[in-house]
Each structure stands twice: as structure tokens, then as C-alpha cells.
Design goal:
The complex is a heterodimer of chains A (183) and B (977). Chain A is an all-alpha fold and 183 residues long. Chain A has helices spanning 9-32, 42-54, 64-92, 101-110, 115-128, 130-141, 146-153, 157-182. Chain A starts with 8 loop residues before the first helix and ends with a helix. Chain B is built from 16 helices and 55 strands. Classes of the chains: A mainly alpha (183), B alpha+beta (977).
Chain lengths: 183, 977
């Protein structure tokens, strides 16, 4: 399914990334000002906007809406994980002189939600159960609903629900163990 | 793992999950009886599922956005923060993250500190912090870090400051402490920074080694003024508790993080003053204590107040005396122990009361140590090298001679550290040394008007003024005795210049009482015979490197403007024109380039307000003119080439910050410009010795105080401010209707408006701008004030503005104008344009109306609002009265031709029956009253000394004047190379 993507990969990424960054900034500033950021359909809205911008890209061979969602979820994953990597680099990067114990604690707390660790774990999951990793990618990174995920993967919504449950447990354990290893 | 096994695990997990939580384990035990590893696998997943909660329930986008928010505003992911490109992280701390960054607009490196998000929710507090931090930065003190910008971007608030390539004092302090001289050096500079900040009403509150940066050249910068105020936690939240109870409870004390982790907390607690530890209001004395703690640690290499927990540290601060220093530093002078002890007194009433007192003690100690060091070295040199002194010994000897000059020689540290870059490291450096150039006062009378140093550095010539008369003096640089080299005359001396061989002194004379005496003179040395080489009104002298030619500027006979650049032989013959200017363009100071080919000169343009001046070079042969630097100043008062031709040193007034004239270095070629002094004095002149080791300039400082009189008793004034080195009211003072005073002050940089009670208390800053806010006047209802704003964006154009007395709602009244006064009904602001006449504009905003086209200087409105008075021309002693509606003069009042000049401003007496003005003669000013009934003017005040800079009447007949002295002394800045 992703083979079709290859041609326009970089260009699509380039188009989607600014949208994602803008949305991230908007959301982050809402969080910082302690306002509610509104309903959490941003990912879908974003991808929809990206869809509108990308459909006329000539060399892209789309296979319908479901395909597009699948591909954009993977793009979202790449963009967001890359974003997290840069953020962490800046935070802890080369010359960072002092990290107090207090802050070290904050950083390890963050690990549970750390997209980088999750990305790694998701790779491991894909080696065991590809479809389950795709469910997570579509729902968590792509922001798709259960129904949309089912449509994209051509499985029943119930299967998506089951896969989601197992994948979540597996990933959570994986990440929690990661923490345990550090102790 | 095999696919089958995974499928098995998946199915079992799903089956278990379909059951109620209480039955799941039992189900697994039953289903997997015997396969323990499988059971453990599924159980652990089941457990994880139960634990996972909200895990993955938010989208990745939200998770990442939250992470950004939690990380308190990071640079954008393209590596920028506002206009700054992030280069590398510099450090992470409780006060925020700091990055090294580049300002793409200006191409300079900066440090950017991102403020932690939790501190910026309180907008009030954030505003207070910004004001305080900017006020400290605006002091332009060499030891206070310069803030370029406080801004926000991507939801992150950040501070961009100058980038200091150095280490924090924390990194410098080793377990054995710093050397005595290094510790004193740092303490002196921190104290100098605090002294300037305290004078401006700013308390740091968090002096500690982490907040002091030390550059490799020894220059110290104090960071984070105002930040402590931002990050204090609910300073007053626990006010109801008794202070001691709060200390006993490790959670409660203010400004403390609730954590008890020793690694993060001690850093702050150890430098707290007892009053801070108690959660009391703090003042400047808290910084003195914290500096004392820091100095102790620099000497001892360990903290003065220690404890295993935060509470123990606080108890130590409140109750224990620090351990004696001598075990840690056996060589420590007893005087230093006394100084530290006095700074660390727990009761702040018993501590040093001002940081100046501490600074003076530290300076004295430093000088004494340096002198003892010199004597010790001199003895050692005599014993080891036997006969004669080595070259370095001679140098030391000279330095020693300088030091023995006692009171005449003041070694001022912390003032001119910007000179450092001009100074190479000398081979023989005393162990105790300022890592900075030395500034030696050559005169102390404050009446110097011009000075030069001979090319060999051995002589200094200067002119001084006494009772309106001037005289020339000569002295040997290192011998504190001057001799007059000419009689006291009414002439004014300028442009004193030594010939390259030191055999002649050249200078210009301007004699208004006998213009025939004006000209360019040459005096032979040492027999002091003057001879006029060039007759007529001339100024600015430059000598060719071979000593054969001189360049000077001739004034135009009609306009008196310096328009002709001329050359002549050094005997005065063969005068020829090299270049000319047309008004408003004029020539300024000159300097002949070392290669002899070009003359650097100042090209200036006059305008109604401040001029612009640039540096150009004119080829001696080809007459071609080129720009030496594209930098524009308001004015340049001297130019000197560095002897190797690598650049020039000028004294010049910056356009951006117009308060003080400073010394600058301009590179050649290239024209890069760098300020080398940066303090609150004015520097006028830059005469260099040929080996560049010494520079002579005039240092000008004003010291003004506000005085008030009671009604009717004008001969007796009371001083209400008692500060030295301040310039309160220099550019204007005004009463408010309720008896407070609005005045100008440069305490925060360029002149801005401040307010105080009439007893000098409760001083606060009203305006804060990049330009100058001067000549305030308060509306009759006391709600707003009008003032002159010198607009930096419009080449310091004079504009009239108003602002509410609480500092809100600034509005422009007029695009051009000055010396505003409010009409008694409050509806109008009247202002003058000098030669452009007088205007009024509605105070609520609206089109201005011209009252007269006739030249009008200063102005006053009658209390009944019917008449406006102004000087018609300042040279003619005449005041014109016109109707408030405008039109022809209805009365001309002639003033007797008393000598002297007017104090800027004119006021109507509150009873409406007289006009008052100030006259300065021979450096002494008094206020006079001109009755409108035709009687002669009467002197009101009875000051015998000092100059008045501004004055105003209160409604109830009290007078306020800003008076004091502007002193100019010759200073030698040595240590150049």
C-alpha cells in the first residue's frame, strides 16, 4: 500500500509538516495558557486539510480516501517523532551543562508519553503483529476513528477494537519495562 | 516469538478482557494450567492493560503539543525563537533554559533565556519583571548584562541578552577558593553593578555565584536583575504566619521550592539574607548580605552557611556566625575579614547600609594590597638583580610612583573595563592587578576645559576656567604638580595639540572681547613663548606626521560656522583651502593619518535639534573625500589616530543613547565601530601618546540635587535630595497641583520622567523610552503631564507628548515643538518652535494653532490664561507678551543687560504679577523676578555657588530648583598598548 507513496513522499511531507507544526504551536499555546484547546479532532481536520492540498499533486497515485488516511497517518508519525527528537535534542543537547535532579525526574516522567520511545516500541510490535501496529499508527498518529481505521485496513471495527486493546497493553508494558531497565 | 504463540496470547488476553476484572486472573489460571510462561505473559499484558488508563487515548499530536507546553516554551522546531537562530544550549536551570543564538537581523551572537511557563501566568508580575530588568540594563553599566529584548514567540517568553563568552563564578570557585586579588576583583565589580542598580531603585535579590559571569579578561557581568522578583513564590502568601514558624517548616518559607532535594535547593538558600529567609520585605541591604556570602565563598572555597537540608541552611543564616576565614585562607588580610563580617551582620540595620560603603572599603583594600605588592616586588628586584633595575622593574617603579600619589590618584575599577581589549597583557604584571586600564585623575578642581598628552607621554597640557577666565597649564604626567604657562585671559582655549617632537604646543584662541586676538597659536616648550600663526576665527588642529604642515578649520566670517578646511605650513605660511562646506554642513575635529596621505575629519550637519556627525577622510593631495565609517553620531568632539594607522579613537555622543559622550574605537579600514567606555560620565577629547600607552580625555560629570523654598522665603532653600552623581531635574522639573515633583533623571539611562514627594521620598519612574523625555509640565487638574520627547526614530526630533500621571496613555500632542506648558483651563498645551514661533494644540488631541510667527524661546502662561510670555531672542534681553489667542505682541519687557546666560525656562509667578527666570553667571545661578508693573528685576534666590538647570513654581508659591555642579576633569587612561 505504501509503495504508491514513494514518488511523492518527500514533497507530501514538506507540505504536511508546516500544517502540523502550526497546529502543534496552537495546541501548545492553549495548554500553556491553561485553556481548553477545543475538541480533539485536530488531527483529522489537519489531515483533511492536507488531503485537500495534496490531491491535485499529479504524480501521486491515490487509491481513495482510505489509502490517503493510511499514508497521512504514517506521515504524521514521521513528522511528530522527528519533532520530538529535535525537541529532546535541544533540551538535552551537547552543551547542556546542568540538569538538576528535579528536572531529571521530570524528564523520566515524560518518557511514558515520549513519542520517540513509542515509535521504537511500535517498530517492535510491527515485527510481531503488523496489523496491530498499523491500528496504533492510524488511530494514535493519524487521528482516525475506529470506523475509519477499519475502512483503511479493510477489517471490521470489532477487529480494530480488539487489536487496539492488545496493542495498547503490549506497548504500555514495553514502555514501562523500558523505564524499569533504567532503574 | 512465533506467530501462533502471539495469536494465542492475543486471544487469551481478549477473552480475559471480556470478563469482569475480578474474574480475569482466575480465568487465566484455569485456562493456562501448566503453561506458566504463557500465563505470566498474558497476565503481565492484562496488568499493563489495567494500568494503561489514558495511555494512547490522546492523539500523538496532542501528546507532542502537551510535551511542548510542559517543556515551558521551546524554540520552534526549525531552531528559531523569534528573530533568533538557536546555535546550542548553554545550560538548563530552575530559572529557565539558556541558548546561545544568533540574531540574524544584526548578525550578532546573543544568549536567549526561555522563561519557565509557570512564571509567566501572572501578567502583573511579568510586567514588573520586564520593567525592572530593562531598567537595570538601561543603566548601561559595564558590569550589568545588557538586555537586547524581552519578547515572546511560540508561546515562550524569552530574554535576549548580550552573549558572554566566559564562565559563571560558580564554575570558577574551586574548593580552595579564588586568589585574593581575583576575589576582590570580582567583588568590586559586582558591588559596582549593584551600586548603579541600587541608585536606580533596583534590588537584585538573588546575588549568587550562578548569577555572576566572569569573562576570560576578568570583566564581570551580573545577570538576571529583576528575575528573582518574577520567580519568588507568593512572597506574601504566608504573611499570616510568624516568620520563625515558617522557617521551622521546610515547606513554607517564601521563595523556596517545596522540594527538599539538597542538590537543587541549596543553591538558592545559601545566599539568602536573614530577612529573605524570614520572608520579610527586602531592600538593597539584602544584596549586600548576599554579596558578602559570595565573597566569603570566593575566599574560603566553601559556603558560609551550610546545612544538610534547606531548613538547616536557613537556620544557619538566621542564627549562626560563619566559620572564621583564616583556616581556609591563612594569608587573608584582617581588613577583608572585617569587611565580610560587616556585610554578613544578621540585623540589616547593623550591616553596611549602602553598597557604596562596601565598595569604598573594598577599593581601599585593593589599592593597599597593590601598593604593598609593588613594594614587595621592588625589594625583591633590588635583592635579586643587584645593581640597577630591569626594564620591567622600571615600569613597575613608574606604576609605584603613580600609586604613591595618594588622593590625587584614584584607581577606578569597574568603570572602564571596556578598555580591556585595547590592552595587551603586559609581560611583567604584578600578582595583584586590575585586569583593566587605569584611570588617573590629573585634575580634581572640575574646571578643566581641554587637554592633550605629549607624543612621548611625559607631559599633559590643559586649559582650565576660573571665574569666566581661562588659562593654560602644563605638568609632567607622573608628577602631581602643574604650572601655568600663560596668563589668565578672557580668551577661550581649544584644540590643544603637541607637536610630534614635543617642542611646541599648538592651540586655538577665541577671544570675544578682543576678536583681533583670535587665531591659531604656537607655544615653544619649555620656555612658553606664544606666537600667533594664523589670524582669525579658527578651530580644530591636525599636524602632519612629518611636522611640516598643519590643518585647521576656518569659521565663515558671516555665519561663524566652521566651513573651510585649510592647510598651512607649521610657521603659518602658505595657507590654502583643502575643502569647503555649505550650511547646514560643517567641519568638526580633525586628525592627520599616520601615513600623511589623508586627514580624518568630522563632517557634521546642523539641524534644529541635534546634529548628525560622520567620519570622513579627505586626501591631502587629491582632495578626494571618502567615508571612514557609516556610523552616525549626534556629535563628535575629538578624533585621534592610533599611531599604527589601524584605527581611530573618538569621543562622541551616540544617536541612540544620547545621554553621555563616550570614547569609541573605529577600525581602519573597515569603519567598524566599538564603544570603549560605557558609563555615566561624559568623555570629551581623545589625545593619544605616540606609543598608544596613554590617552588623555576630559571626564565630565554632573551632580545635581533638587532644592525647594517655602513661600516668600526664597533666599533660604532646603535640599530635598541628597545624592551624589545624580542629575535629577537637569532637563526639567515641575510641581504637581498636590505638591509632588516631576523631574528628569538619567538613573535608567537616557533622561526620563520621574516623580517624588516634596521631601524627596517615594521616587518612582513615570516614563521609559528609547529617546529622551524632558521639560515636564503638569496639567492644572493634575491628571496628565505634557513633556518634550526627543524621538530616536526621528533623529531626536523634538516632539510634544502627554501622558497620564500614573504613566498610562501616552499621546502625541504635536509633531514638532518643545518647552510645553498647559493652559490654566487644561484645554491647551502651548509650545515653542524657537525660530519657528509659538503654537498651541488641544490637550485632547487635534490640529495645532500658530500663536505667533516671531521667534519664541521658552514660554510661560499667565495664571488667568490670557497672556503668553516668551523670550524673543535669547541674546537680546527681551520678553514678549502676546494674547493667548495669538497675534501681535501687546507688550515688550526689556531686561537689564546683566552678564550671564539664561537657565532654560520661563515661569509666571503664581500671583500673576511677575515673570521669573534664571541667570547663570560665572558658574553661579539665581532666580530673578521681573515685576509686570514696570519695576526693575529683583534677585529672589541667594545662591553663592552652583548652577541651576531648571526651576518651577508651585501654586502655593514654593519654588523648586535643580542645581549642582558639572565638573570636568582631565583624566589619564593608561595601560593601553
Amino acid at each position: 500500500m505504501l509503495l504508491a507513496w514513494r514518488d511523492g513522499d518527500q514533497s507530501a511531507l514538506d507540505k504536511l509538516a508546516p500544517l502540523v507544526y502550526a497546529e502543534l504551536r496552537r495546541l501548545a499555546s492553549h495548554y500553556m495558557s491553561r485553556e481548553r484547546p477545543g475538541h480533539s479532532l485536530q488531527t483529522t481536520a489537519l489531515v483533511n486539510e492536507a488531503y485537500l492540498r495534496l490531491v491535485d499533486y499529479k504524480r501521486m497515485r491515490w487509491e481513495g480516501r482510505a489509502h490517503f488516511f493510511a499514508v497521512s497517518a504514517q506521515l504524521m508519525r514521521r513528522i511528530l517523532v522527528e519533532h520530538a527528537r529535535k525537541r529532546q535534542y535541544l533540551k538535552r543537547g551537547g552543551g547542556a551543562a546542568r540538569v538538576s535532579l528535579e528536572e531529571a525526574a521530570v524528564i523520566s516522567e515524560e518518557r511514558a508519553a515520549d513519542l520517540i520511545a513509542l515509535d521504537d516500541a511500535l517498530e517492535s510490535l510491527a515485527a510481531i503483529d503488523r496489523r496491530k501496529s498499523q491500528v496504533v499508527e492510524l488511530r494514535f498518529f493519524g487521528g482516525l476513528s475506529v470506523e475509519e481505521t477499519a475502512e483503511a485496513l479493510k477489517v471490521s471495527p470489532l477487529t480494530v477494537m480488539r487489536d487496539w486493546g492488545t496493542a495498547k497493553a503490549w506497548l504500555y508494558r514495553e514502555l514501562a519495562q523500558g523505564d524499569g531497565d533504567e532503574r | 516469538m512465533s506467530a501462533e504463540r502471539w495469536e494465542q496470547i492475543d486471544n487469551l488476553l481478549q477473552s480475559a478482557l471480556r470478563r469482569p476484572p475480578g474474574q480475569r486472573e482466575a480465568f487465566l489460571k484455569e485456562a493456562l494450567n501448566g503453561d506458566e510462561s504463557l500465563r505470566r505473559e498474558v497476565e503481565s499484558l492484562l496488568h499493563a492493560h489495567e494500568q494503561a488508563g489514558e495511555f494512547l487515548e490522546a492523539t500523538a499530536l496532542e501528546v507532542e503539543a502537551r510535551a511542548i507546553a510542559d517543556s515551558q516554551g521551546q524554540p520552534a522546531m526549525d531552531g528559531t525563537l523569534g528573530p533568533y537562530r538557536i546555535l546550542s544550549p548553554l545550560g538548563v536551570g530552575g530559572m529557565g533554559e539558556v541558548y546561545r543564538a544568533r540574531d540574524a537581523r544584526l548578525g550578532r551572537e546573543v544568549a536567549v533565556k526561555v522563561l519557565p511557563a509557570q512564571f509567566i501566568h501572572d501578567q502583573d508580575r511579568l510586567r514588573r519583571f520586564i520593567r525592572e530588568a530593562q531598567a537595570a540594563s538601561a543603566l548601561n553599566h559595564p558590569n550589568i548584562i545588557t538586555i537586547y529584548e524581552i519578547g515572546h514567540s511560540n508561546g515562550a517568553h524569552f530574554i535576549a541578552t548580550e552573549f558572554i563568552d566566559g564562565h559563571t563564578l560558580r564554575q570558577r570557585i574551586t574548593p580552595t577558593g579564588l586568589s585574593l586579588s581575583a576575589a576582590l576583583d570580582v567583588a568590586l565589580q559586582v558591588a559596582s553593578a549593584l551600586s548603579a542598580a541600587h541608585a536606580a531603585g533596583i534590588v537584585h535579590r538573588d546575588i549568587k555565584p550562578e548569577n555572576v559571569m566572569v569573562r576570560p579578561d576578568g570583566l564581570v557581568k551580573v545577570l538576571d536583575f529583576g528575575l528573582a522578583k518574577l520567580t519568588e513564590r507568593n512572597a506574601r502568601a504566608a504573611d499570616c504566619e510568624a516568620p520563625n514558624e515558617r522557617v521551622a517548616d521546610s515547606e513554607a518559607p517564601m521563595a523556596l521550592k517545596t522540594t527538599t532535594d539538597p542538590g537543587t535547593v541549596m543553591g538558592t538558600a545559601q545566599y539568602m539574607s536573614p530577612e529573605q529567609a524570614r520572608g520579610l520585605e527586602v531592600d538593597a541591604r539584602t544584596d549586600i548580605f548576599s554579596l558578602g556570602v559570595t565573597l566569603y565563598e570566593m575566599i574560603a572555597g566553601r559556603a558560609s552557611f551550610e546545612g544538610a537540608t534547606r531548613t538547616e541552611v536557613l537556620v544557619a543564616i538566621l542564627e549562626r556566625e560563619p566559620a572564621p576565614l583564616s583556616p581556609y585562607a591563612p594569608a587573608i588580610p584582617a581588613e577583608l575579614e572585617r569587611i565580610i563580617t560587616k556585610a554578613l551582620v544578621k540585623d540589616r540595620e547593623e550591616r553596611y547600609q549602602t553598597v557604596e560603603d562596601l565598595l569604598i572599603d573594598l577599593k581601599r583594600l585593593k589599592q593597599r594590597l597593590e601598593y604593598e605588592q609593588y613594594r614587595g616586588e621592588a625589594r625583591a628586584a633590588r635583592t635579586t638583580s643587584g645593581a640597577g633595575l630591569t626594564l620591567s622593574g622600571i615600569k613597575r617603579h613608574e606604576r609605584g610612583a603613580l600609586l604613591t600619589l595618594g588622593a590625587l590618584v584614584m584607581v577606578i575599577a569597574g568603570v572602564i573595563f571596556g578598555l580591556n581589549k585595547l590592552i595587551s597583557q603586559k609581560q611583567s604584571r604584578p600578582v595583584v592587578s586590575f585586569q583593566a586600564a587605569k584611570l588617573t585623575l590629573i585634575t580634581t578642581h572640575g574646571r578643566a576645559v581641554g587637554a592633550a598628552i605629549s607624543p612621548d607621554g611625559k607631559y599633559i597640557a590643559y586649559a582650565m576656567e576660573e571665574d569666566g577666565k581661562q588659562s593654560l597649564w602644563l605638568r609632567q604626567t607622573h608628577i602631581p604638580a602643574s604650572a601655568p604657562i600663560g596668563t589668565l585671559t578672557a580668551a577661550q582655549y581649544s584644540d590643544i595639540t603637541f607637536s610630534r617632537d614635543g617642542a611646541f604646543l599648538y592651540y586655538c584662541v577665541r577671544d570675544e572681547t578682543d576678536p583681533a586676538l583670535s587665531g591659531l597659536y604656537q607655544m615653544t616648550l619649555p620656555d612658553h613663548n606664544p606666537k600667533r600663526l594664523i589670524a582669525g576665527p579658527v578651530l580644530n588642529i591636525a599636524l602632519s606626521p612629518d611636522g611640516a604642515r598643519l590643518a585647521f578649520v576656518r569659521r565663515d566670517s558671516q555665519t561663524n560656522a566652521p566651513l573651510t578646511l585649510a592647510l598651512a605650513n607649521t610657521d603659518g605660511s602658505n595657507e590654502q583651502v583643502l575643502a569647503t562646506r555649505k550650511l547646514p554642513d560643517v567641519f568638526g575635529p580633525l586628525a592627520w593619518a599616520p601615513d600623511g596621505e589623508e586627514i580624518a575629519c568630522v563632517s557634521a550637519r546642523f539641524n534644529a535639534n541635534l546634529g548628525t556627525a560622520t567620519l570622513v577622510a579627505i586626501s591631502v593631495k587629491g582632495r578626494a573625500e571618502k567615508q571612514l565609517s557609516d556610523h552616525q553620531w549626534s556629535g563628535v568632539t575629538s578624533v585621534a589616530w592610533l599611531p599604527d594607522g589601524s584605527g581611530m579613537i573618538v569621543s562622541a555622543l551616540d544617536r541612540a543613547v544620547t545621554a553621555n559622550s563616550q570614547l569609541w574605537q573605529i577600525s581602519y579600514p573597515g569603519g567598524a565601530v566599538r564603544k570603549i567606555t560605557n558609563d555615566l560620565n561624559d568623555y570629551l577629547g581623545s589625545s593619544l601618546a605616540a606609543d598608544s600607552d596613554a590617552l588623555v580625555t576630559l571626564q565630565e560629570s554632573v551632580s545635581l540635587n533638587l532644592w525647594i523654598t517655602s513661600k516668600g522665603k526664597y533666599a533660604r532653600a532646603t535640599q530635598i535630595t541628597a545624592r551624589t552623581g545624580k542629575d535629577d531635574g537637569q532637563r526639567g522639573v515641575a510641581w504637581t497641583p498636590d505638591g509632588r515633583l516631576v523631574y528628569t533623571s538619567t538613573a535608567s539611562g537616557s533622561p526620563t520622567l520621574w516623580m517624588m514627594n516634596s521631601d524627596g521620598s517615594n521616587q518612582k519612574q513615570l516614563t521609559m523610552t528609547a529617546g529622551q523625555n524632558i521639560r515636564p509640565t503638569v496639567s492644572p487638574d493634575g491628571l496628565y503631564l505634557a513633556f518634550t520627547f526627543l524621538h530616536p526614530g526621528r533623529r531626536m526630533n523634538r516632539e510634544v507628548w502627554r501622558i497620564n500621571l500614573d504613566g498610562s496613555d501616552p499621546k502625541q500632542i504635536a509633531e514638532d515643538g518643545g518647552f510645553p506648558q498647559c493652559s490654566p483651563d487644561g484645554n491647551w498645551v502651548v509650545y515653542e518652535l524657537g525660530p519657528g514661533g509659538m503654537w498651541k494644540a488641544p490637550s485632547a488631541g487635534g490640529a495645532p494653532v500658530q500663536l505667533t510667527e516671531k521667534p519664541s524661546f521658552y514660554l510661560a502662561i499667565s495664571p488667568d490664561g490670557k497672556l503668553v510670555a516668551s523670550f524673543s531672542r535669547l541674546a537680546q534681553r527681551q520678553i514678549t507678551l502676546i494674547p493667548f489667542e495669538g497675534g501681535s505682541p501687546i507688550r515688550l519687557l526689556d531686561l537689564p543687560p546683566t552678564p550671564g546666560s539664561y537657565v532654560p525656562g520661563l515661569r509666571w509667578a503664581p500671583d500673576g504679577r511677575a515673570l521669573s527666570y534664571g541667570i547663570t553667571h560665572s558658574g553661579v545661578s539665581n532666580i530673578w523676578s521681573l515685576p509686570l508693573d514696570g519695576g526693575p528685576p529683583k534677585q529672589m534666590t541667594d545662591f553663592k555657588a552652583e548652577q541651576i538647570y531648571s526651576f518651577d513654581w508651585s501654586r502655593d508659591g514654593r519654588l523648586v530648583v535643580s542645581r549642582g555642579v558639572a565638573s570636568r576633569d582631565v583624566v589619564l587612561i593608561s595601560g593601553f598598548r
